[in-house]
Amino acid sequence: RIRTSASGFRLPPTAGRRNSHHMACVYILKTRGKKEYYIGSTTDLVRRLKEHKAGQVASTKPYLPVELVF
After folding, report:
1. Which of 16, 33, 37, 69 is the most exposed place for a label (fewest CB within 10 A)?
2. Confidence (pLDDT) at 11
3. How does pLDDT run across 45-64, given as a tens digit for each residue?
4. How would you label 5-41 residue by residue, b for 16+ Cβ within 10 Å and e otherwise?
5. What residues contact residue 38 under an 8 Å CB cut-off, 6+ apart?
6. Phi, psi at residue 18, to the nearest 5°?
7. 27, β-bridge pairs
């Protein structure tokens, strides 16, 4: 089953779940102009995507808006 966040991101079934294993997921963002990509990893994808969208991540802030591609 594919879930989406409030901002329209497609999320894996385990996104946002907390567990004792803290499994990380890798994600790829496409930057403004769709010419560059940002690759990151996190144990809380929903929180991390919100941080990117809000401009709270220094490495992607100059390239907003960003789009989740994987």
Report:
1. 33
2. 63
3. 999 999 999 999 999 999 99
4. beeebebeeebeeeeeeeeebebebbbeeeeeebebe
5. 28, 29, 31, 59, 60, 63, 66
6. -105, 135
7. 40
Residues 6+ apart with CB under 8 A from 62: none
Pairing of strands 25-30, 37-42: antiparallel
30 with 67: CB under 8 angstroms? yes
CA distance 66 to 64: 5
Question: Which residues does 16 contact at the CB level (< 8 Å), separation at least 6?
Answer: 44, 45, 46, 47
Check: pTM over 0.85? Answer yes or no. Answer: no
